[in-house]
Amino acid sequence: MLSKNTIKHIQSLSIKKYRTQFLEFIAEGEKIIHELLLSDIHIKSIYATPQWLDKNKNELQKADEYRAVNEIELKKISNLSTPNEVLIVCKIPKNELNIDYLKNELSIVLDNVQDPGNFGTIIRLADWFGIKNIICSKESADCYNPKVIQATMGSITRVKIHYEDLVSLFEKLSIQTKLPVYGALLNGKNIYEQKLSSHGIIIMGNESNGISNEIRSFIKQPLFIPSFNSNKEIDSLNVAMATAIICSEFKRLNPINR
Amino acid sequence: MLSKNTIKHIQSLSIKKYRTQFLEFIAEGEKIIHELLLSDIHIKSIYATPQWLDKNKNELQKADEYRAVNEIELKKISNLSTPNEVLIVCKIPKNELNIDYLKNELSIVLDNVQDPGNFGTIIRLADWFGIKNIICSKESADCYNPKVIQATMGSITRVKIHYEDLVSLFEKLSIQTKLPVYGALLNGKNIYEQKLSSHGIIIMGNESNGISNEIRSFIKQPLFIPSFNSNKEIDSLNVAMATAIICSEFKRLNPINR
Q1: Which of A111, B76, B170, B209 is 20 to 30 Å from B57 at the Cα level?
Q2: Which residues in chain A have Cβ-Cβ distances shorter than 8 Å to B227?
Q3: Nearest to B46 by CA among B32, B19, B22, B160
């Protein structure tokens, strides 16, 4: 039996305020939990059906504690319309951003991406393309939102997400590194005709407003994915789609890590 | 005032069975409705606030009828958690598939794509890349599902969606045309190293199971987007992401329509 307080605590973790207060997040779904248990993320609690616990005996010692729960309890703590057999509570890892480390890497900067589905998809894309760091403006969606965690399909365990003041980040980057700064802009240059570096920063903007003026000024190489449709009504690609195509272009031209 | 019957009828259109029976679908959202009103899709009814009707006077004659509704009524007929100012009921267009027409085109075949968000995103991508036809297996999600319509952001007015028995379609295609048939497969060839034609068929598969065995046998050129991450846990890209990258590659190499 879960106590009322435990249920209330777990439920509170679907709200950012409480995730920040407790430095904890929840995850659900067989695949994501499997990857979290394999990762170096600190697992506080496993809440699972007796069947799941029995089936996954060898993984239980990775958590501080595990508790058998019935379906009614699982429904109470779950964020899914059809709860899975298991839910875990994890500690939010401390991802410290080391600017030196970015020097030889390709990294993504998100300027106020808000939709959890888009954000989760971008994390999954970064993982696929071997991009290890995503740096977000402080107003961006929270990567520990259960919907983001769900959409990453486990990639959250491999891609490091940092929240930074982007203006001071770019100021530091321009002083301490020679990293090329690319950005997706509607008036950018045709991406298929540009030289793209193996390392650098790719800035992607908000779903409605794109990259803010303040951040735009740091872009040295504005990029645009041309439309192949002459109809003028199509205004833009969704930010996750654009990220997919841009990452594909960078990695196609610099397949060093493959 | 809307009658109970009218409300019930509009509500029923969020269910496929009734859309098929009445050959009608609903759309919401400023941008999508604007594009539907510009398109040659037959608009049956506009249900909008008096303010919206007043602001859009010149577009009202495109519909068979329009009705002023209040916020309570709009909430009843809307599929959105925060209803917009307007909802329209449209006739489902008859999209007849002409195989001859595909001969010089690049087209997408969807073998049982189920998620409305993925499907809507793929329609939007097709539009961006100037792909005019998407042919779906009969088990695929319904493109007139309100969630798909929403995710297309208006592209549904420009991309023709066909539902066909795929086996007989591919049999006909192989007899009547020389169209190259590409498919996204995990054991395909590195897409960045292939010759991609300006015309042909690209097959994308179901979210969990990929392309069915029956349809797989028609693929002459299996394609794969390589991962740039050596970690083996990453199993695949989401189908909409993969479609974005594949379309980008085809059009980058064949920019004829740009």
Answers
A1: B76
A2: 128-130, 258
A3: B32
Residues of the domain holding A168: 99-257
Q: Are B128 and A237 inside 8 Å of each other by CB?
A: yes
Chain B positions contacting chain A at CB under 8 Å are: 35, 38, 117, 121, 124-125, 127-130, 154-155, 158, 192, 225-231, 233-234, 237-238, 240-241, 244-245, 248-249, 251-252, 255, 257-258
Q: Which of B91, B120, B142 delimits the end of a domain?
A: B91
Whether A178 and A242 share a structural domain? yes
pLDDT digits (tens, 9 = 90+) for B241-250: 999 999 999 9
Which residues touch B251 (CB under 8 Å, ≥6 apart)?
A228, B106, B129, B130, B258
Q: Give how far A105 is from chain B: nearest CA, Å.
A: 13
Judgement on whether residues B64 and B148 belong to the same structural domain of the protein: no
Query: Of A35, A125, A227, which has the smallest distance from its Cβ to B128's Cβ?
Result: A227
Cβ of A117 within 8 Å of Cβ of B121? The answer is no
The residue to which tokens 């100012």 are assigned: B85
Total domains present in chain B: 2
Tell whether pTM > 0.90.
yes
pLDDT of residue B188: 95
Q: How confident is the model at residue A38 (pLDDT cuts 50, 70, 90)?
A: very high
- A128 with B231: Cβ contact below 8 A: no
**pLDDT computed for residue A30 by the predictor:** 84
Neighbours of A93 (CB within 10 A): 17
Tell me the mean pLDDT in the region B221-229. 94
How many inter-chain contacts (A to B, CB under 8 Å) are there? 105
Quick one: pLDDT band at residue B258, thresholds 50, 70, 90? Answer: very low
Q: Residue B104 carries which side chain, given as an amino acid letter?
A: N
- Please give the Cα distance from A149 to A142 (Å, whole number): 10
Least confident of A13-22, A225-234, B229-238: B229-238
Q: Are residues A204 and A124 in the same domain?
A: yes
Question: For position B140, which CATH number holds?
Answer: 3.40.1280.10
Asked if A69 and A155 sit in the same domain, the reply is no
Q: What type of residue sits at position A147?
A: K
Q: Which of B75, B134, B73, B143 is nearest to B106 (CA)?
A: B134
Shortest Cα–Cα distance, B117 to chain A (Å): 10
Q: Which residues of chain B does A231 touch, with a Cβ-Cβ cutoff of 8 Å?
A: 127, 158
User: Which residue of A lies nearest to B154 if distances are taken between CA atoms?
Assistant: A234
Q: Is A162 exposed, middle or buried (0-12, 13-18, 19+ CB in 10 A)?
A: middle
Q: Which of B125, B225, B233 is facing A241, going by the closest CB pair? A: B125
Q: Is the domain of B107 the same as that of B20? A: no
Decide which of B69, B91, B113 is a domain's last residue: B91
Compute CA A7 distance to the chain's CA centroid, rounded to the nearest angstrom. Answer: 26
Both A57 and A124 in one domain: the answer is no
Same domain for B194 and B82, yes or no, is: no
Looking at the structure, tell me whether residues A60 and A141 fall in a common domain.
no
Q: How far is B255 from chain A (nearest CA, A)?
A: 7
ipTM value, please give it. Answer: 0.92
CATH number at residue B18: 3.30.1330.30
